[in-house]
Amino acid sequence: MRLDGKVALITGGARGIGAAIAKRFVEDGAKIVISDIQKDLLEQVAKSLKPGTVATCAGDVTNFDDVQKMVDATVKFGGKIDVLVNNAGIDPGGSIVDIDIALWKKILDVNLNGPFLCMRAAIPYMIKQGGGSIVNIASLAGVRCLPSMPAYCASKGGLIQLALQCALEYGPKGIRSNVVAPGATRTEMLTNAMKSLSEAIKKDAFEVLTESVPLRHAAEPYDITGACSFLASDDASFITGAVLLVDGGAAIVDVSGASVAKAGVGWGV
User: Fold this and answer.
1) Which stretch of DSSP H or E encloses residue 181?
2) pTM for this model (two decimals)
3) Active-site residue 125, yes or no?
4) What is the DSSP letter of 109?
5) Nearest Cα residue to 223 out of 253, 186, 194, 179
6) In what order do the strands lie in the sheet with 175-182?
């Protein structure tokens, strides 16, 4: 029960990693408010959790009025806001030349401006109460590049820098800001994004995505939650400005070496 007594706001809590984080935080003793633009799904997640531990606040993280309502709802529900989890995100693709400019702006708005607005609303409360923890869900794509995903990669890279800036500026106020960067995870969002690849190769696209990953498989959403719970907790009381890769080891793999390994031989053999 490492989060016993903690009160958290989790954005994008209606499905995928956000819903899994909600489940884990309740299991670990927290009271939570989950937000999302998908109100029906949000209510379904809430009903699946222990009564009295969760409240919902539907809204759009790109709208500051909505964000302020989320933070206010959290304080009203739990009396404070110890933890903010910036999880809401979208992942449409498109190359620099081809992506619709409006879509580029939307991706940055949700994935980067959304966390900024949530920080802007939550930090004043955290300062008044003497501190807090902000857990930002970025992506391996924030430190590595993906083909035809410039907006997503730029937004997640920007989120990492925003999180570090927050750690620098508000550490003296007792606020910690850290990043969890998942690798390939079997969420509905990524599964849908990989649908055309699965159809083209006539097998599970996740097998291709992870064939050179040291652990050789994709994460399930719940696999990401332990890192989030740890960073939210007092166990991580002296950790801020950290970027924790939860990627099965994907980031350590050199693409040249992976090609050699795929051929079934050793380097230089």
Assistant:
1) strand 175-182
2) 0.93
3) no
4) I
5) 186
6) 54-56, 31-35, 7-11, 83-86, 132-137, 175-182, 243-246
State CA 8 to chain mean position distance.
14
How many other CB atoms are there within 10 angstroms of residue 97's CB atom? Answer: 6
Q: pLDDT tens for residues 115-170?
A: 999 999 999 999 999 999 999 999 999 999 998 999 999 999 999 999 999 999 99
Q: CA-CA distance, 133 to 153, in Å (whole number)?
A: 24
Cα–Cα nearest to 137, from 114, 121, 105, 120: 114
In angstroms, the first-to-last Cα distance of the chain is 51
Let me know: does 86 contact 135? Beta carbons within 8 Å: yes
Q: How far apart are CA 264 and CA 185, in angstroms?
A: 26
CA distance 153 to 143: 8
- Walk me through the domains of the chain, giving residue ranges and CATH numbers: 7-183+219-242 (3.40.50.720)
> In this structure, what token pair is assigned to residue 88?
């809401």
d(CA 156, CA 140): 8
Using alpha carbons, list the distances in angstroms from residue 43 to 55, 78, 81. 9, 18, 21
Torsion of CA 19, 25, 31, 34, to 10 degrees: -20
Angle at 188 between CA 184 and CA 189, to 5 degrees: 70
Q: Which of 125, 152, 170, 222 is catalytic?
A: 152
